């Protein structure tokens, strides 16, 4: 996801109401449909940085029953969120893909093995698409933000798989041409 910021997602959730870290992680999981694994440690380290930067404050008036820290967004946090939302991402998502590195290394050291990698990766993407499609078909008329978030996340994951499969087709054609097949 281009330009997605855990910090900004947390600010967005807190702009609706004060919450503690576990509630924020749960809301993030609902929004992303569980397709983006967010570590609870990242939630708390992000909250601590935002606390230090004055974007959130501890909500002294509403402590949770189990003594968890409850955070609320500050006016500076609201401005930060609004500024972030108003700016569209300026770049496409970065290509940080392990498969790209593997393909490059195989082309340097053992080009014929690149075709084997392409075949095995194609199977992985097809299995992933089948699972995502199964999950999407299992959605019952999504309701509310969480349902829509889950459906959008599944749509995005399927679109990425389709794009990755098209990229593999391009790779295969280029590798075959390189090998003289």
What is the count of β-strands? 3
Would you tell me the overall average pLDDT?
87
Rg, rounded, reads: 21 Å
Number of domains: 2
Structural class by helix and strand composition: mainly alpha
Shape: elongated
Verbal overview:
The chain has helices at 6-16, 21-31, 40-52, 75-86, 98-109, 111-138, 144-179, and strands at residues 19-20, 56-58, 70-73. With 181 residues, the protein is mainly α. The chain has two domains: 6-86, Arc Repressor Mutant, subunit A (Orthogonal Bundle), CATH 1.10.10; 98-179. It has a three-stranded antiparallel beta sheet. α2 packs across α3, α5 runs antiparallel to α6 and α6 runs antiparallel to α7 (144-179). The relative contact order is 0.12. The model has no long low-confidence stretch (mean pLDDT 87).
Write the layout of secondary structure elements.
Layout: H1 6-16, E1 19-20, H2 21-31, H3 40-52, E2 56-58, E3 70-73, H4 75-86, H5 98-109, H6 111-138, H7 144-179
Antiparallel strand pairs: 1-3, 2-3
Which structural traits does this protein have?
single chain; 181 residues; mainly alpha; Arc Repressor Mutant, subunit A; 2 domains; 3-stranded antiparallel beta sheet; 7 helices; 68% helix; elongated
């Amino acid at each position: 996801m281009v330009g997605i910021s855990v910090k900004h997602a947390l600010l967005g959730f807190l702009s609706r109401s004060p919450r503690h870290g576990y509630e924020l992680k749960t809301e993030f999981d609902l929004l992303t449909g569980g397709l983006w694994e967010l570590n609870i440690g990242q939630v708390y380290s992000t909250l601590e940085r935002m606390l230090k930067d004055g974007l959130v404050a501890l909500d002294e008036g509403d402590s949770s029953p189990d003594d968890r820290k409850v955070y609320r967004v500050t006016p500076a946090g609201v401005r930060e969120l609004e500024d972030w939302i108003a700016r569209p991402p300026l770049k496409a998502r970065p290509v940080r893909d392990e498969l790209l590195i593997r393909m490059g290394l195989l082309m340097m050291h053992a080009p014929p093995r690149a075709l084997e990698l392409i075949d095995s990766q194609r199977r992985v993407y097809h299995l992933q698409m089948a699972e995502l499609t199964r999950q999407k078909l299992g959605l019952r008329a999504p309701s509310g933000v969480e349902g829509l978030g889950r459906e959008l996340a599944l749509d995005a994951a399927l679109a990425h798989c389709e794009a990755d499969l098209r990229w593999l087709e391009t790779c295969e054609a280029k590798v075959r041409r390189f090998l003289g097949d």
